[in-house]
Amino acid sequence: MRVEEIPEMAATAAKTVPVMMPYITAFFMPRQAGDRPDVVPKEAVNFAFIGQFAESKQPDCIFTIEYSTRTAMEAVYELLGVERGVPEVFNSTYDIRSLLHTLNRVRDGQGIALPGPEILRKLLMNKLDETVIGELLENAHLIAK
Ligand SMILES: Cc1cc2nc3c(=O)[nH]c(=O)nc-3n(C[C@H](O)[C@H](O)[C@H](O)COP(=O)(O)OP(=O)(O)OC[C@H]3O[C@@H](n4cnc5c(N)ncnc54)[C@H](O)[C@@H]3O)c2cc1C
């Protein structure tokens, strides 16, 4: 498509179907244990509940796509006796390794270029070398030794 074709195509070839984002309020209603059925209720052998309104065994909060996915995995593994664990929920917000890896992604995989003259950069890198901080930064591909 060429730029000159855009007005003509916008006027004749594009269809816009207006849609509304669904409300998310139901997810945040107060609840307590027992309000939602367990994914695989006690003694159930051929049915399960999946999705946001089923109670997973994982210590996860609802709302996320991951929660729904976990309930489906939990249901299949448990009912079919599959010997696989449902991926665990972990506190990635507080895990410095996850945060540094995120930083690497945010920077499009580019490492951090330390500012300043070469001699200072080398001095700093030597200081970081062999330290836990250096190892963490290197593992997250933020610096290269
Ligand atoms: C506004 C908004 C923003 C969100 N943002 C995020 C986000 O940033 N990150 C994130 O991880 N999650 C987000 N979520 C949550 C995420 O979208 C949902 O948790 C996820 O889509 C739930 O997936 P699901 O397959 O369990 O259910 P759904 O995607 O709700 O699928 C259920 C399906 O069942 C169909 N259905 C219902 N009743 C029947 C029936 N009787 N017969 C046949 N079919 C039926 C429905 O039409 C629907 O297609 C957001 C949700 C909303 C509403």
From TrEMBL:
Gene3D superfamilies: FAD/NAD(P)-binding domain (3.50.50.60). InterPro entries: FAD/NAD-bd_sf, Oleate_hydratase. GO terms for biological process: fatty acid metabolic process. GO terms for molecular function: FAD binding; oleate hydratase activity. Pfam families: MCRA (PF06100). This is Oleate hydratase. It comes from Acetobacter estunensis.
